[in-house]
Amino acid sequence: MSAPYGYDAYPNTHHINYSSHSQDDVKVGFDDLIDEYSRPYAANANHQTFAVTAPAMESRGPDHRRGPSFPLGQKVTIAEGTKAMSDDTHDHSTIGAYPPITTGMKDTQPFWRKLIPESLACRLYLLTVLLETIVDLVIEGELYTRLDLTYSSSAASKKMPVYLSIFAMAHVFQFAMAIDAVYARNTLQFLFLTGFNLALLIYSVIQIAEIRQTILSSDDSDGLINVSVSVLTTIIPIVVAVAELAYILLGWKIYHEFGWKVYKFLGADRRIKKMYANFQIYECLVKFDVFFWAGFSVQFIWLVLSKDDWEYYVTCAALPLSVLLLVEGHLAARHENKWMMATFMSGCVGAMVYFVYKLTKVFMYMDDQFANIWKSLVIFSGGAIILLVFTFAMSIVVMQNFGRGLKDALARRNNTYHVRGVSKSHGRAASLNPNRMSID
């Protein structure tokens, strides 16, 4: 009776050449056998494997055949065609070794492409801020032109260009903060921007009467746009109000999107999440300090001080130094440097003393030196003092969290969020960890 398959179908698997001696001559002792095979994964000439060819597998095609085996020390390069067809291949260099070699991913996207967010809600948010900024800047520029044509020596005519410039600067600042919030995925900054835009809405309503009183011949003034001043001043609060509604709706959507993304790189550790929330609040306070400090300094330099006064040059020098101080506060929290944070907190105390002194001086001379501008100076100096108090308090909280793991979590975010490796097969972000299963 013959076997189902001939012996010719199987290769010769014997790896010992038997001679004509007796069976006892070729027996191997147990100790020798253990010594020889005690290292099964070491390089050994006696260890060989063979691909078995069976007729049943041959009939099903070459895809059902077992591939050749290789020793562990030999690394075989994967074919380029195989790598192109494989979607879950992490090691693009060699196989046969563990763990796989992690290759760094290069971000080949241009800089302008990085500024465009992937989320539709974020794109609509930035588009709304951009449209609001463009429309209001055009109208403010038109009002400034007509104000220049109807120039008078009154105090109201001198202060209106400053107020228009601050309003325009606020829109530019808002657009920059919106881009930063989307790029940094700072959910709390969207809440701050919503409140900031609400303040712009109130300011735009207040300036309607002041602009109409300043530009006496509003309908007869020549300008770039053939529209009356009453219509232009009415359009601004309408645009800001519509944008405010859009910010609330889109901000709610973005809050849920960023909440999941933040959870992915922070994990479920509530301690880290709480520290990150404090860090975000601190960052928002530092950024909005810039606007109130700069706004107060510009008004004080332009409307109050003269070039013959020594305080004029001190204020001009203090403006860039204050911006550098706020940058130092950001770097101190990001890199967890206690000496830089201590310097920043000392600067906050000095700035607080300065603004309290200025606010007291404004109240003392509100009927004389600051008769027509005291309201705006009180708003900016008071806002700066309030922000400084909260900034100083949050700087203490953030400094207490130094060395507790937040710095490492932010470093992981920079490595995974801002380096967007995209797979060509499905267009989604690829995992940077070769031993990790991703559901992105």
Automatic annotation (TrEMBL):
<feature type="transmembrane region" description="Helical">
    <location>
        <begin position="377"/>
        <end position="398"/>
    </location>
</feature>
<feature type="transmembrane region" description="Helical">
    <location>
        <begin position="281"/>
        <end position="304"/>
    </location>
</feature>
<keyword id="KW-1133">Transmembrane helix</keyword>
<dbReference type="GO" id="GO:0005794">
    <property type="term" value="C:Golgi apparatus"/>
</dbReference>
<feature type="transmembrane region" description="Helical">
    <location>
        <begin position="162"/>
        <end position="183"/>
    </location>
</feature>
<keyword id="KW-0472">Membrane</keyword>
<protein>
    <submittedName>
        <fullName>Uncharacterized protein</fullName>
    </submittedName>
</protein>
<feature type="transmembrane region" description="Helical">
    <location>
        <begin position="229"/>
        <end position="250"/>
    </location>
</feature>
<feature type="transmembrane region" description="Helical">
    <location>
        <begin position="190"/>
        <end position="209"/>
    </location>
</feature>
<dbReference type="InterPro" id="IPR040410">
    <property type="entry name" value="UPF0658_Golgi"/>
</dbReference>
<keyword id="KW-0812">Transmembrane</keyword>
<feature type="transmembrane region" description="Helical">
    <location>
        <begin position="339"/>
        <end position="357"/>
    </location>
</feature>
